[in-house]
Amino acid sequence: MPTDPLRFPMRSAALVVGPGWLGQAVAARLAALGGPVATLQRSARPSSNPDVVALTGDIADAALGPVPSAALQAIVRSAFTSPIDHLVVCIAPSRARGDDYGLYPLAAAGAVALAQALQIRSILYVSSTGVYDRQDGSEVTEQSAITPHDARVQALYDAEQRIATVARDPHATAHILRAAGLYGPQRDPAARLADPTFAAGDVWCNFSWRDDVVSAIVHLLQHDRAPGARIFNCADGTPLRASAIAAVLTGRAIEAPVARAPIDRDAPVRSGRSNQRVNVDALLATGWRPVAPTVYDGLQLLGHAVPVAPIAS
Length: 313
Hints:
The protein is α/β, with parallel strands linked by helices. It has helices at 21-32, 66-77, 103-117, 151-164, 190-194, 210-223, 242-250, 281-284, 295-301, and strands spanning 14-17, 37-41, 52-56, 86-89, 122-128, 139-140, 173-179, 182-183, 204-205, 208-209, 228-234, 240-241, 277-278.
């Protein structure tokens, strides 16, 4: 059965940094559990949820020196009358602001500094399975080696390394959740997946239903409280070839995979277009279960009449 975190009351105070499409859903789920919840974002924007307090501030300020750090701490403290139990970080670069990938380690450093200043002993950071950067179709687990060769992967890796330093406190818990290919309500990928260009190269694809990532976050905060730093992959657990997905969505029979060009390890990798198979056994072992165990299930949840499809490669 899928994990339903709402069955387990938490009532903990939580600060969610980066209330975008994922962060807003995380904040709403945490607020539904009964504890005080606030969000922190760089641009002033009212909360869409009456149970969530919207704060304006830049998490990176916490690591920029005593004055900006003190100002940010005051902003955060204004929303809570008791200690903050959890800090959840769901940040992403903003094109409108001209952000580059350097935002990841800057925000991570700020999150660590804020957690230390406010004695928040549980921090969960949402990273990406893109950090593995495999282009050969191999399986990746949390123990797979990471060898950054471009700015994006280096930034993802550096951010994770900063978050892990939280665990130097023997009473603190740091979770790094590496999420794959987010989609879900308001982000319907059907048209892109059916586009013939999607199958080009016939890479292995991994997906995460947005609300399954939300449930994984809440599940870990509730049920994995031991001190230390731990990394978990978060995906539906069913890697599929691009050609198979396109064939199912279009009704076309694709007799053989499109030939792939030789891999050039010195060339920049397109963001979000790795060729790897993400293993999620570690997260499943904690008791978490996805509502959408394949991208076909997610597409059905979005209202598409997806035929029953074979899962074999």
